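User: If only I could read backbone structure tokens as easily as an amino acid sequence. Underneath my words sits a plain record pairing an amino acid chain with its backbone structure tokens. This is the protein in question:
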Amino acid sequence: MDRRTFLTTTVVAAVLAGCSEIRGDSGPDDAAEEFYEALDAADADAVGELLHPDADGWVSETDLAPFEDLDLTVAELAVLDEDDETATVRVEYEIDGEWNGEPVDAADSRELAVRTADGEWAIAEPSVPTISTIEAAVEAYYEALGGGDVDAVNARIHPDSDHAELTRSDVELIEGLDFAVERVEVLEEDDEAAVVEADVHVRGEIDGVEIDEVTNDVLEIRTHGAEWKLYD
């Protein structure tokens, strides 16, 4: 091999090696895992750096707030589909700790849309894990109603709901009633909203009238940050 051929080969090899260092061996699942690690650290800057420039959505401080106190762990990652520029990654996760004075022990999964940007995989549709199930949110709402604590009830209602900020007078209207959720069926669901049907056994007394009946309620539940809350 003459000197010119040797130098040319060496330069090409160096360039290719440099490109390899830039791209590395990272894939869409690595981007998803780094995203969840940034969520667990409640690191807004790190989360922002992992989002695609044209991401559909963002992660707010409200989304991150629970993870300042909770532990978010990735249990399993699976690339569902992938081409040169896009991929879908399913993330199975576990959350434990304490939030707002209540223990949290949740496990669920989310699908993340991932796309390349400047040769790196980035999160195109950020999806923040919820710290409770839809069923638990429904049960917590009715439990708060039965407890007669207006603050606890309002904490279960989505802030954008037309029913937000119930007054003490509103809650006093049903004081003396006990609500027991017997069945919750999810009729429709995506990552941010769900429609559920709930059978609720209502017992108690109002104005001297005994009540003992099962109501069938259809409710809309939406996410607020990392929590499911009653919307309508």
